[in-house]
Design a protein that fits this description.
- 2 copies of one chain form a homodimer.
- The first copy, chain A, is α/β, with parallel strands linked by helices and 642 residues long.
- Helix content of chain A is 43%, strand content 10%.
- In chain A, α19 packs antiparallel against α20 and α24 packs antiparallel against α25.
- Chain A is globular.
- Chains A and B meet through α12, α17, α18, α19 and α20 of A and α12, α17, α18, α19 and α20 of B.
- Chains A, B: InterPro entries: ThiC, ThiC-associated_dom, ThiC/Bza_core_dom, ThiC/BzaA/B.
- Chains A, B: Catalyzes the synthesis of the hydroxymethylpyrimidine phosphate (HMP-P) moiety of thiamine from aminoimidazole ribotide (AIR) in a radical S-adenosyl-L-methionine (SAM)-dependent reaction.
- Chains A, B: Belongs to the ThiC family.
- Chains A, B: Keywords: 4Fe-4S, Iron, Iron-sulfur, Lyase, Metal-binding, S-adenosyl-L-methionine, Thiamine biosynthesis, Zinc.
Chain lengths: 642, 642
């Protein structure tokens, strides 16, 4: 008797990861509406406790932070991965009247996959109609921007980017921030929809938003906006499954990824991608040459323009928002890598180098570049011009191969802009600190200020296992100098495929780098979160301190390792120093003491110190006198009961 | 019937932590001898496998790295914590004929503790005689240096610091390093004992080496030497024991701590410290005001110069190598902290501020500064002039309180140098990236280039749980700008007392920051380790890659998570991309291919590309022709069997 085994369909079991949808403590999702009812921009609002009575009893306004976690943390939405997310942008795209729905997919490969019944159990089953530009129409955000049109996407983005500045102004604390140093960026006092439009029109920013990805929450990548972070997911021949990859998406965006790249090189790349895009509220990037290589069974010499072209269309019709294209790996640059310590470390770059040498021909991505543009503009896919010749070791940094390619990418940017294709430029790699600025300055010059999107850079090679840190240093610096988006690096870099924990650590590290850069650039309102957290710390509002942090779970659990009881959350000390030695506790005693001295202060100290010091003291004295009066009015009890 | 309970003595159970003494894989400890038989400088030598036949079959010379792990990783030494380490420097100190042995301790408190039988079970029992300078003698390294004397300590240090440069020269690779950018430092081509002497004489470097700490392996802190890292240990009222603290010492130095500060604020500070120093091969720093505060039961107002003086002597006679002294917290600066977001975050700073206000008097550490100098010079204890008013939040960075104190520290440095006391200056704190350089430049100006020793700085406040990273960014930058030593920060910063894992992660993060700075400064030979590791990576010598890293255990285990078999250690791929997509594997194929083209290359490509490109190709062609010949001679098989 033969057994009939019914294979379980993936779509029967697709549940969203519980950890990814857990609400953030102390927070709620709010929406700010724009000029139309369907422009609703999500933000996270963190509520704070009042300052304790004995410390001044003030109300602490809630803090709004940029929110990349999407519908997954919206308590009003029930997530069903099998259905995908709501098509938020559908009406906006419809209203532009420049696209049509296709009755079938345009890609040969996509049609083959669709007919293969063996793949049924892996398939995302929800039927979706594919869009494409009407003949002769260009549907990129850059095209609209150049025509003076402010799209709903642009308005959405302006609200999103302007959030911190608005709160700071509303709270009257806009000036309570260090003036930054931004090396000639043009960060305005207010991010308006018109400013967004002008940045996109001139190519200094991009809005990755394929017309076939209506589910996404629009975001912008550009030097004059908040620094963004990309997280990578994707299986390989040696690991991972579709469920695991979707989980990494929801997990990565929970912690702050602004875009996600699906770098799968293993099985069922097409089906995996469909699940990811349909459930992604952030832009998705890919490297199409990987799938093209799979189609020729890993034999790089068998790649061709035709196969690649079909792959571009297949992926564009699924909704990929940006493509990494290694069109700058020119035949003449390949020998320049011969003396390198680590040769060509980019997967795409090494694949194209192999093809070039095998065929004795120029890179087909370069020779067919304008053909690629024709495809991109029909769907609004953005370019991420790949740095196939980036340095993979400190020794190779800033060499002729790397810079030669960068010059070619500059040349290609001009061509892309001729077609109104939104374009960003990928960057290194491994670069010691003192050579980082040269990279940024050269890229600005060569590429007409198109956004720069770097992988780190790693500032030393000697710490495998810690490359999120070696690269976090370089990433913070290059973002300060002008880099628009940072591609994260996890602790597993150079060693293996990252798991969920690695993804989180990588994202948090890169959010740190991005925010440190926003502060250094003086991005208006960026210091508000730091100030709120430090104030909470100083006032021993432990829960507020945790909740305002990038990772409240970890902060809370670290604290609880040595002081787990709830009573410790109002304690005016922690286990680092204990109650006698806590400097913050003592500082508050100092202030109380100084306030109580009041008007006597200057007289007594005048004798001790001499006239000059007294002058400085008097300025503060008035404030202290007021505080002293307040304290006396409330009683002088200093601490809450533990 | 009464039970007689014999309390177990700590000294009966004191075993060294096994994990700390495990040999480093692929490594052995070597010693380089100086001009006398007892100048034996330890280094770690990492052996590397030969490059595989098919990749060129070359021998890879062993790599020597600076070794802070001390006798703990010397297979020829049996560690007995109860006996302490060998007194390596004893003869050197004897030979100077300027010290005498005391018959009893000079400190009242120390004598009290010694007589207290209840402490017997905690005491380090090994009898040791205390040294002090003969009357009228000054025994500091700076004093000797100013007299033109090169001490054995200076020679030892020169050998230690010169190691990388020597190997690079020996291997003929000294020029294979990016020229650095060092902002006006004076890093010489060769570190000679005379150079060490001159840096110490002018105060630009210090050699912390108390005459009562003969067990230490001398090291130097200065801008023109390798950037150093300090790790903190120490109990608090809420945690840890003597065994745990000694374990943190051996563990922290295993991973790279150049000095250790014992910041205990809990029980039995005196006894804990004795165990630590007797077993420490690295300089030990303390903050004497902590213990002084314990002696007055945590009531800062009850502190006095007399109690503090006795504490200094007590600790100097135990062998503490440097004291953090908050002599710059002047009464007139305290009100300047009134409007800060986080007030005074330094424990010592807040204690002194409280004392000043309570007594309406100037800080006694300031008023008695020259008395402190008299004590320091009798034992060669170095100053670490404390930054009691450092900023504890981004908002407070670079404010008047912080810079006022820095100016006073500059004034005090001059006084210290009058007494030939070796002096370094402590620094911040929390500083956004764009304000970091100002700190470094001001410190160089105000303090006559005395070494700077910062805590980070943290570049943003928003990531409790990850402050080793927020500060690792700032630390790397300020070290590049000229900071000489970095005080580490662990993931537990702001949240609680760090455990062993936190100590390791903090140390590794700061070794990364220090080395990234050495590279950026162009420290001669510093790139050798990066180059060796990257070469091993490129050639798939996995074990070599792990062993050359700062943490080979973690690198190896991360790799093994997805590819655990031994066969994977010769695999030409890892689980990140798998065999088809591995860029390094493909690059090697590219090189093989290019080499096999040989002389045909220029002819064929000339047609495809035109004359100009061919000119570039020809340069490389000769090399490729040679390689092609080599490959053919060896057979053209590319990969080892997996």
């Amino acid at each position: 008797m033969t057994e009939v085994v019914t294979e379980k369909k993936l779509s029967d079991s697709a549940t969203v990861d519980a950890a990814s949808i857990k609400p953030f403590p102390g927070s709620k999702k709010i929406f700010v509406q724009g000029s139309q009812a369907d422009i609703l921009v999500p933000m996270r609002e963190i509520s704070l406790a009042d300052t304790a009575m004995e410390l001044g009893a003030e109300k602490n306004p809630p803090v709004r932070v940029y929110d990349t976690s999407g519908p997954y943390t919206d308590e009003n939405i029930v997530i069903d991965l099998r259905k995908g997310l709501a098509e938020m942008r559908r009406n906006w795209i419809d209203a532009r009247l420049d696209t049509e729905y296709l009755n079938e997919k345009s890609s040969l490969f996509a049609n083959q996959r669709a007919r293969d019944e063996a793949l049924d159990r892996l398939r995302f089953n929800h039927k979706r109609k594919i869009r494409r530009a009407l003949a002769g129409k260009n549907v990129t955000q850059m095209h609209y921007a150049k025509q003076g049109i402010i799209t709903p996407e642009m308005e959405y983005i302006a609200i999103r980017e302007n959030m911190s500045l608005q709160q700071a102004r509303a709270q009257g604390v806009l000036e309570q921030q260090h003036q930054g140093m931004d090396f000639g960026a043009n960060i305005p006092d207010e991010i308006t929809p018109e400013f967004v439009r002008s940045e996109v029109a001139r190519g200094r920013a991009i809005i990755p938003a394929n017309i076939n990805h209506p589910e996404l929450e629009p975001m912008i990548i550009g030097r004059n906006f908040l620094v963004k972070v990309n997280g990578n997911i994707g299986n390989s021949a040696l690991g991972s499954s579709i469920e695991e990859e979707v989980e990494k998406l929801t997990w990565g965006t929970r912690w702050g990824a602004d875009t996600i790249m699906d770098l799968s090189t293993g099985k069922n790349i097409h089906e995996t991608r469909e699940w990811i895009i349909r459930n992604s509220h952030v832009p998705i990037g890919t490297v199409p040459i990987y799938q093209a290589l799979e189609k020729v069974n890993g034999v790089a010499e068998d790649l061709s323009w035709e196969i690649f072209r079909d792959t571009l269309i297949e992926q564009a019709e699924q909704g990929v928002d940006y493509f990494t294209i290694h069109a700058g790996v020119l035949l003449r640059y390949v020998p320049l890598t011969a003396k390198r310590v680590t040769g060509i470390v980019s997967r795409g770059g090494s694949i194209m180098a192999k093809w070039c040498l095998a065929h004795h021909k120029e890179n087909f991505l370069y020779t067919h570049f304008e053909d690629i543009c024709e495809i991109m503009k029909a769907y609004d896919v953005s370019f991420s011009l790949g740095d196939g010749l980036r340095p993979g070791s400190v020794a190779d940094a800033n060499d002729a191969a790397q810079f030669g390619e960068l010059e070619t990418l500059g040349e290609l940017t001009k061509i892309a802009w001729k077609h109104d294709i939104q374009t960003m430029i990928e960057g290194p790699g491994h670069v010691p600190m003192h050579l980082i600025k040269e990279n940024m300055d050269k890229q600005l010059r060569e590429c007409g200020e198109a956004p720069f999107y770097t992988l780190g850079p790693l500032t030393t090679d000697i710490a495998p296992g810690y490359d999120h840190i070696t690269s976090g240093i370089g990433a913070a610096m290059i973002a300060w100098y002008g880099c628009a988006m940072l591609c994260y690096v996890t602790p597993k870099e150079h060693l293996g495929l990252p798991n969920k924990d690695d993804v989180k650590v990588g994202i948090i590290t890169y959010k740190i780098a991005a925010h440190a850069a926003d502060l250094a650039k003086g991005h208006p309102g960026s210091q508000l979160r730091d100030n709120a957290l430090s104030k909470a710390r100083f006032e021993f509002r432990w829960e507020d301190q945790f909740n305002l942090g990038l990772d409240s779970d970890t902060a809370r659990s670290f604290h609880d390792e040595t002081l787990p009881k709830e009573s410790a959350k109002v304690a005016h000390f922690c286990s680092m120093c204990g109650p006698k030695f806590c400097s913050m506790k003592i500082t508050q005693e100092v202030r109380e003491y100084a306030a109580n001295l009041g008007a006597d202060l200057s007289a007594e100290l005048g004798e001790a110190l001499g006239e000059e010091s007294v002058v400085r003291m008097v300025d503060v004295e008035a404030e202290m006198a007021t505080k002293a009066a307040e304290f006396r009015a409330q009683g002088t009890k200093l601490y809450s009961k533990v």
